[in-house]
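Please check this today:
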Amino acid sequence: MLGSVVEAEDIVQETFLRAYQVSEENIKIKKAYLCKMMTNLCLDVLKSARYRREHYVGPWNPEPLLIESLQAFDPSEMLVQKEGLSIAYLRMMEHLAPDERATLLLREVFDFPYSEIANIIEKKEENCRKIFSRAKQKVSHVEGESLNYEKNKLIINRFIEAFQMQNTDALLELVSENVTLFSDGGGKVTAAVRPIASFSNVLALLYGVIKKAPEDFYIEVKNVNCQPAVVIYMNGKIQSILSFYISNEKIVEMYITMNPDKLPIH
């Protein structure tokens, strides 16, 4: 819903505190009550976040969630995480109005019936169906995203090897000629303030970054938002995270997040 770990943690805490103050005798269905409370709190945050994002310096990427191990989660929850956590999906969610975002997630990810969604967002059931259909059309851009972790990891490892060897032919097999890179510095660090489009421009920017890197620069492929991503270290700490949108075994979009407020500390 929010695309931010910090904001999500705040909402969970606020929901807990509010629910704790309500007598259980007044709650008929706990799950429905908590979902409605949390969804409404998220909607309030989203309405204020839209204003902040409109004034954000440069492209806005969702906050990368570094996951040290795929086994860190209950396997039954993995489907929800994979479908709803990729940077490409979260970024596309930014194009949705708050009600569209809530309806899409409640229906698509959590499989709520329209009758329950109508109760949660306080709209008519028929309206919820229309909202869902409209939201689906807006995010259709990422419908073809590959979520196969191991296949995507192989593609990214091949990309790194070809990039390091400056093998243009190999890179063209892995990266779309129309690839776009979204660089998020948030005005805190130097970053491209507009999306970088085309194979040649994106590669030129990445080579430029590497050329200026300090001697202790190194990278690791890690699990970020349940997908493989390149974690870039400089001066002994995470300097940026490069995530990918892969479709039909080709890298279609890249998202490099450098805003220090969005990066893991370790």
DSSP finds ten helices and seven strands in the chain. The mean pLDDT is 88. The two ends are 25 Å apart (CA to CA). The longest strand covers residues 237-247.
